[in-house]
Amino acid sequence: MKKFDLLLTGVGGQGNILASDIIGDVALTAGYDVKKTDTLGMAQRGGSVISHLRIAAQVFSPLIKEGEVDILIGFEKLETVRWANYLKPGGIAIINNYAIPPLSVNQGLEHYPTDAEVKNIIGQRTDKLYLVDGSQKAAELGNARTLNIFMLGCLSKFLPFEIKDWEVGIALHLPERLLKLNMTAFELGRKEIR
Amino acid sequence: MKKLLSGNEALALGAYHAGVRVATAYPGTPSTEILESISQFKDIYTEWSTNEKVAMEVALGSSYAGARTMVSLKQVGLNVAADPFLAAATTGVKGGLVVINADDPGIHSSQGEQDNRRYAELAKIPILEPTDSQSAYDLMQVAFDISEQFDTPVMLRTTTRISHSKSVVDITGQRQLREQKMEFPRQMQKYVMLPVNARVRHPLMEERLVKLAAFGDTFAFNQLEKGEKKLGIITSGIAYQYAKNVFPNATILKLCLTYPLPPELLKKFAAMVDKILVVEELDPFLEDHIKAMGINVIGKEFLPRLGELNNDVVTGAAVKADLLPASQPLEKISIPAKLPMRPPLLCPGCPHSGAFYVLSSLAQRLKLPGSKQTDKTSTLVITGDIGCYTLGAYPPLNAMDTTACMGASIGQAIGMEKAGISNKVVAVIGDSTFLHSGITPLIDAVYNQSKITVMILDNSTTAMTGHQEHPGTGFTIQGDPAGKVNIENIVKGLGIADVKTVNAFNLKEVRAALKDSLERDELSVVIVRGNCAVKVPKKVNPRAVDKELCNQCGICLLIGCPAIQTEGPQPVIDGTMCMGDACTICEQICPRKAIKPASPVKVGVNK
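YS: structure for the whole thing
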C-alpha cells in the first residue's frame, strides 16, 4: 500500500476542512488507515486553516513532517506558499489561482506575493506545479462554494481511488440538492489536470 | 463498523455507550464538541451550564443521585471549576463521574499554557490519557467503571491534537444502561464536608491512590510493546504517536492510566531496557514521578516543556540525546519577501466592530494605516475579556488593554480606579462571559461604589467557540425553548441606576451613550446589542464605494472590516463578503457619503 501525505491549506470559509473530511472517508472506504488533523486560527472565519491528512497502511502521528508532504493542495496562494517548506522535493502542488489579501496588504503595509514569486517558491521544491482556476470555475458554475469539490476533482487524478468512491464520499458530506452541481465541479476539476 | 471520528466525537460516543445519563459543560476550545456531539442523543440530559463551576456542581449532584455523569471543559475551565472539582475528589461519587479535561499545548486558543495533570495530582484522583480516537472511545467506557470501583471522580485528559484529530474507530459496543432508580441516600459522613467528616475522607483518598497504583500494574490499557533492548520509551497521549514514528524499533511502555503510576510495571520495564527516555508534552509529569520511584530516566533535558511535540521536535531531541544519528536537514526554501501574516479578524458585519471603533475614537487611538502620526496619550483605559471581541485589541481598532480570564475585565477596572489612575476606565465584556462570571464583580462595583463604565457587548450567542446557546438566548443545547435571563433586569436588579441599551449598528447611539457614561460620576452600564454576523440569515444590499465621491481618505479602513479592501489607494468593498443592510457601519463613518448600496433598491418606479 502506498502512503499519501496531503496538506490542504486555505482561508477560513473556503471549505478546505470539509474537503479533507471527504478525502478521509474516501480513503477509509478504500481500505486505508487514515488520520486527519486541522489547525485553525483563533477566529471562525478569515484566519488561515490547514489540514494534515495522512493515508497509509498504518498511520501514527497525525502531523506530517516538514519536507514529507506528497501533495500540497492550496485553496489560496499566500496560504500555500506559507507552507511550501512542507512539500517534499519533487512533490505535487495544486494551487487555486486566487488571492485573498490579508488586512495588512489592503492597508498597504505588506506585500502580497506575485504569481512569479509563487512559482519561484514552489519551484524550489518541485516542477510539478498545477495553478488551477478553481475560484473562477466555481463562480462560473454559479456557486463559489463548489471550489472545494473542484479542488478534489483535481486531486483525484493523483490518488488511486475509484470515482464511485469519491461520489459516495461527497454525498456523505453534502445535501442532496447540491450534489449534481458539485459533481459537475468535480468533473471540471478532473479536466483541469492534464 | 469503522468510522473516522474526532477525539471529541469518540469520547462522546464512548460515554453514551457506557450509559452516561447526565452531561454538562461550558463551551471552550478544544472541548466544546464533546457536549455538542453527545447532545444528539435525546435520551440523556445535556446542558450548557452557566460556567464550569456550575457544570461541575450539577454533575456532582447527578452523580450523588446515582447517575453516570460527565463534565467536559477546557484546561482553564478547570481553573473556574477547581473548587467543586476538589470537593468531588474528597466526597467521592455514587454514579460514575468523569471529568473530561482538554489541555491546549501550543496555545491554539487559550489565554495560557498549563498541564492540568497537576490538578488531578492535587485532587488525588486518577488520570486516563487516550492516544487517538479509538483509545478515547475505549477509555471513556472503562473510566466510569474505575470511578465507581474506586469511589472517585476520574480525569480523562485530552489535548487539542487528540480532541481535534480524526482517526479510525472500530465501533464495537452499544449503549449499556443499568436498570436503576435514582435516589440519594443520606450519608452525612460522605457528603457533608464538615471538618470532622473531611478528616475521615482524607485517609480514604490516600488509600485510594495506593489501590489505584496497584490497579495500574495490570490495567489492560497500560501496554508494553517489546522492541530492542537498548532503548526504552515511556510515553502517553499524542506523544505516543510521535514516539512510534521516531523510534520504530524501541521497546515502548504506553501508559493510559498516567496517575497514579504503576510501580511494579515500571520496575519491570526498567529492568528490560538499557536506557529510558520519557516522551511527554508540557510538564515533566511522568518523568518526575518515575524519578521519584528511583528509576533513572531522561526526558525534559532534551524535549521542550512548551508547545506541542511533533515528529520533527522528537527527532531533534533524539539527535541531541545521541539516540539517533544527525541527518542532513532538507534545505529551506528561500522566500523573496516576508510573507504577510493573516491574524484572525472580526467578521464583516460584526456588531463589535462599531462599538470598538467608537471606543478607539473616544480614547484617541484611531490612526490612518501607515500614518507616521505619533500616538496620543489615551484618555481611557479599556480592560477586556474573553471572546471574539478580544480581537478588538489588534490594529486598526487598538481598543483593548487587558485580557486575563473569564470575567476579569470588571474587577480589573475596579482595581485600577481604586488604585487611583487618572484615566477613566471602561470594562468590555460579552454576554456569555458576563453571565459566566461578570455578575459577581459587578456586585463588587455596586457595593464598593465604583464609578467605572461597563460595556456589555451582547450578540446573543457564545460566538467564539462556534455559536452555542447560553442562559440569555432562550434555547437549550438541543434547540428546545429554555428559561431566558434578561441582562438589563440583572443589572438593574443590582441597584445600578444608569443602564442604557443601544443598537450596535447605530454608531451615533453608541457614541452618545458611551460619552454620557464617561462624563458621569457614577457606575454605568451600556449594553450594546446586535446579532452576531454569522447568525444573520441573508445579506441584503451589499455596500459599494462610489469612486467619484471617494477621496481615498482611508477612514473606512479603520473599522478593520475584511470586506473593505484596496486597489492601490482606492478602498473597494467585496460585495460577496459585505453584510449590507444588517451592518452599514462603514456607510455611517464615511465623511464623503461615498459608501452606498451597490444596487440601490428603486421604490415606486413603474417599469
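YS: worth flagging: Chain A has one domain: 4-192.
IM: good catch. Also The domain at 4-192 of chain A is CATH 3.40.920.10 (Pyruvate-ferredoxin Oxidoreductase; domain 3).
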